[in-house]
Amino acid sequence: MKYAETLEYLEGLGKFGIHLGMERIEALLTHLGHPEQKIKTVHITGTNGKGSVSAMITNILLCSGLKVGTFTSPHFVKYNERIQLNGQDISDEAFATTCTAVAGAVDFVKEQGMDQPTQFEVLTAAAFLYFALEQVDYAVIEVGLGGLWDSTNVITPVVSVITNVTLEHTDRLGKTVEDIAMQKAGIIKDNVPVVTAATGEALGPIKAMSLFKQAPLYIYGQAFSAQEVLSSMQGQTFTLSSGYYNSNYDILLPGEHQLSNTAVAVVAAKIMSKQDKRITELALHQGVAHTKWPGRLELIAQRPDIILDGAHNPSGATALRRALDKYYPGQAIHFVFGMMADKNMQQVSEILFKTGDVVYTVRADAGARAASAEQLAGIVGTQATSYATLSDAYESACREAGSAGIVCVCGSLYLIGSFKTWQQRSNYGKE
């Protein structure tokens, strides 16, 4: 397939939706010669923070002089963003070639009576195949959904990471935090160290699974901790403490939640360094100091301050609201807001919006899952106005906020993707 044909093929697979289970991915990988077994991996799950932690671990390994693959989801603009080599998106040619090989495997397993693999399973197999062919030193693999039955859970990593656990995807992962934590704890493997920032009732299943698997467990707030030194929208300094270890780290990512995310990433890399002396103390500091992660408290312009955040669940909305209150105390925020209809729109709205804020609701993207602007405005209430297009909502928000104001585009990663796509088109041909 050529690149355009590859995109059509993947879009066609989207209609099959999400079907958790391991049979299809295992069949694909068997036919491809088990590329996932030919590479060292890091496995990362959690309700929020997976992407940031993946990016930081990737950068630590890159600063160690290693060849690194990274698999994340979803993408903002192009599917290529999901599969990266040394921090760069896979090329169109390599993406098409790899997906063509996986498509051949799909045809084979279907002929053997297997159900149609999903889009995410095809992309997962493509990532493993590409990383194996490139002979990466490590592949940093982000879970798509949950953990136990996620298609990435075919690997035995050198370290497992569970960032945090709150209620999400309750239709698929369980109705309680404990149920969801058990699903995420499904990535824990025999004798493989686990690092987590999970708290409260989520810790029970993680501790139980770690004990059952005899996997060493490192818990944020117990085995290690982070203490803020300085913090602004431009970045933060904090002290990481673990036993006799105390060291200051500088990061570009704002928000209190990024302290625990960074601490988790560093501790995971330090565990890896015990087996791989190429991962140095200097690389730990340089890696996190250079990390940027789009769509999470991403400050893209000033006067007015324009912030992008893909907060799409209550815990993500809480982190965003805390950050806005911290960095812009007492100031009204102009929100451009779009969400998926199957998310907890009411609770996210109650967390995000305060008296004095102005909300411009939009449809997050063209997909069937997206809530309409009118539906969202009805949920938010009198401080919200619905807009037919994202561009109209954004331009109105910027105009009414003025040069001293704050505009926050938020509510869904799909909305951030739509915004970035629109912005690229708007800037096309401009100097």
Brief summary of the model shown:
The protein is an alpha/beta fold and 431 residues long.
Number of domains: 2
Say what the CATH topology of the largest domain is: UDP-N-acetylmuramoyl-L-alanine:D-glutamate ligase
**Fraction of residues in β-strands:** 15-25%
Count of β-strands:
17
- In CATH, what is the class of the largest domain? Alpha Beta
Q: In which range does the helix fraction lie?
A: 40-55%
Biggest sheet layout: 8 strands, mixed
CATH superfamily of the largest domain: Mur-like, catalytic domain
State the distance separating the first and last CA atoms.
34 Å
CATH architecture designation of the largest domain? 3-Layer(aba) Sandwich
Roughly what is the average pLDDT, rounded to an integer? Answer: 95
Low-confidence stretches: none
Strand order of the largest sheet: 4-3-2-5-1-6-7-8
Give me the number of helical elements.
15
Structural class: alpha/beta
Tell me the Rg in angstroms: 21 Å
Shape: globular
